[in-house]
TrEMBL record:
Pfam families: ABC_tran
Record keywords: ATP-binding, Nucleotide-binding, Transport
InterPro entries per UniProt: AAA+_ATPase, ABC_transporter-like_ATP-bd, ABC_transporter-like_CS, ABC_transporter_ATP-bind, P-loop_NTPase
PROSITE patterns per UniProt: ABC_TRANSPORTER_1, ABC_TRANSPORTER_2
SMART domains: AAA (SM00382)
GO MF: ATP binding
Protein name: ABC transporter ATP-binding protein
The ABC transporter domain, residue ranges: 20-254
């Protein structure tokens, strides 16, 4: 199958029915033992303004799929479309430049986006306020806690002004309390971005995690990938109203159901 990676012009976002479209995507890597199929015939749409979590066991290809959507790699087969332009990507590690202040890290993203120099500091300060780090523009990275660094990383991702935010386990290294706080902050920012009812569809999020409760706490839809190779095994629509808490009974009930399916996929593929 011929492989293409189609990205339409940003102006078409106002007429599209999806923020990302993944159609029959497969990905193989070559190694000493030959070609290894990591993703197999993945098809998935993310609607404008939708929050989707990708869930699966370690090694199932979640991060590989996110890298393909981000344009950091190309699929072996199939097509990926992100009609709103290049997605913003947030990693598990904050990946901030330690020689720059928090504000200057954000200003760098603004410069790459083409924002005028005279406007960058004001916009960086606005984004820091958005992630509840007002006054931190001049702070060095080493002066920030882990949670604060991830807030700056989120502000930097938002500085790219993309309609699609890709998040690769961004809170996995944080302690439980900080992670819980940032779940709430991310939900607040996502909801605020979608309250305007813009024709472009607001902000869509594709969030990778192996934490079932995190997936249910955040998402409108949970997509479970199988292991070796990754395929879409099952999807759940999450009808629990926001704000949610990770300890809520409804979150726990759905998490238990999804966990049973995840365990079944792990057993089926002989993982431990």
């Amino acid at each position: 199958m011929a492989t293409t990676l189609a990205k339409a012009a940003e102006g078409t976002a106002r007429t599209t029915a999806h923020a990302a479209r993944i159609e029959h995507v497969s990905k193989s890597f070559s190694g000493p033992a030959g070609s290894q199929l990591v993703l197999d015939d993945i098809s998935l749409d993310v609607a404008p303004g939708e929050f989707v979590t990708l869930l699966g066991a370690s090694g199932c290809g979640k991060s590989t799929l996110l890298n393909l959507v981000a344009g950091l790699d190309r699929p072996t087969a199939g097509t990926i479309e992100t009609p709103g332009g290049r997605p913003a990507l947030m990693f598990q590690e904050h990946a901030l430049f330690p020689w720059l202040t928090a504000g200057k890290n954000i200003e760098l993203a603004l410069r790459l986006r083409g924002v005028a120099k005279a406007d960058r500091k004001t916009e960086a300060e606005r984004l820091l306020e958005l992630v509840r780090l007002g006054g931190a523009h001049g702070k060095r990275v080493h002066e920030l806690s882990g949670g604060m660094r991830q807030r700056v990383a989120l502000a930097r991702a938002l500085a790219q002004d993309s309609r699609l935010l890709l998040m690769d386990e961004p809170f996995a290294a944080l302690d439980a309390i900080t992670r819980d706080v940032l779940h709430g902050e991310l939900t607040r920012i996502w909801e605020a971005a979608n309250m305007s009812g813009s024709a472009a569809g607001g902000l869509s999020v594709l969030f990778v995690t192996h934490n079932v409760r995190e997936a249910v706490r955040l998402a409108q839809r949970v997509v479970l990938l199988s292991s070796r190779p990754g395929r879409v095994a099952k999807e759940w629509t999450v009808d629990i109203p926001q704000p949610r808490r990770i300890e809520d009974a409804d979150v726990a009930e759905l998490s238990l159901e999804i966990t049973e399916h995840l365990r079944g996929e792990i057993r089926r593929h002989g993982q431990h």
